[in-house]
Amino acid sequence: DAGVIQSPRHEVTEMGQEVTLRCKPISGHNSLFWYRQTMMRGLELLIYFNNNVPIDDSGMPEDRFSAKMPNASFSTLKIQPSEPRDSAVYFCASSSPYGYTFGSGTRLTVV
Amino acid sequence: GESVGLHLPTLSVQEGDNSIINCAYSNSASDYFIWYKQESGKGPQFIIDIRSNMDKRQGQRVTVLLNKTVKHLSLQIAATQPGDSAVYFCAEKKGGDDKIIFGKGTRLHILP
After folding, report:
1. Lowest mean pLDDT among A89-98, B26-35, B79-88, B94-103
2. Is the Cβ pair B43, A4 closer than 8 Å?
């Protein structure tokens, strides 16, 4: 079991550019979550999917953020246009009835 | 509203001593609580969980205590080791909900 796989591990981009973060959940896990982690706000839930359907996107900061889950094995979180305040570590997690597993995160720096 | 409150202090503990990390939660509808450990450069890792029908649960070197009356959760780590150095988060989940809400974390620093 390779766990939850996120890519890229690090991303540095200029303000105004589009950023796409990717996540491959654990096979068989029905739910997928995107979290953002900053020192100021801690771990914030942005959005989660159940069986590929978005269930709660109330944590998405604004319209610049969007997330998709086209199939059970892939999800993306897109920021367009990116801003310096989006700099954070973005985690993807997937879950089964037995618990959550987190990926290693993508560290995003917007300059 | 829902919140799991945990100011972000640093707890320094001598190697071999016991550690106690505390957490307050505010959502009385939460019925499942989890402690996570996050090491530098990694995602949070599950340590131990407890359901609201229990007040204590023990694992290997870790114990979670739940006091629903005062909405308080604690994590006890016995015989703290250097490998225990990390940030620890409590998290809560409401029955029927899939999402987990995290507190802000406590950094545990082990003194040699």
Report:
1. B94-103
2. yes
Asked if A43's CB is within 8 angstroms of B98's CB, the reply is: no
- Provide, as residue numbers in chain A, all residues whose Cβ is less than 8 Å from the Cβ of B45: 102
DSSP states of B56-88: EEE-SSEEEEEETTTTEEEEEESS--GGG-EEE
Phi, psi of A103, rounded to the nearest 5 degrees: -80, 180
**A74-91 pLDDT per residue, tens:** 999 999 999 999 999 999
User: Contact A42/B101, CB-based, under 8 Å?
Assistant: no
List, in order, residues 6 or more apart from B65 with CB less than 8 Å away: B55, B56, B73, B74, B76
Please tell me the predicted confidence (pLDDT) of residue A41. Answer: 85
Task: Kindly state the average pLDDT of the residues B85-109.
Answer: 90
HSE-CB of B35 using CA atoms within 13 angstroms: 28
Smallest Cβ–Cβ distance between B98 and the set A35, A48, A105 belongs to A48
Biggest alpha carbon–alpha carbon distance for chain A: 40
**Which pLDDT score is estimated for A99?**
84
Per DSSP bridges, beta strands A106-110 and B19-25 are unpaired
Q: Are the CB atoms for B95 and B29 separated by under 8 Å?
A: yes
Which residues are paired to B31 by β-bridges? none
Which pair of tokens denotes residue B31?
């019925």
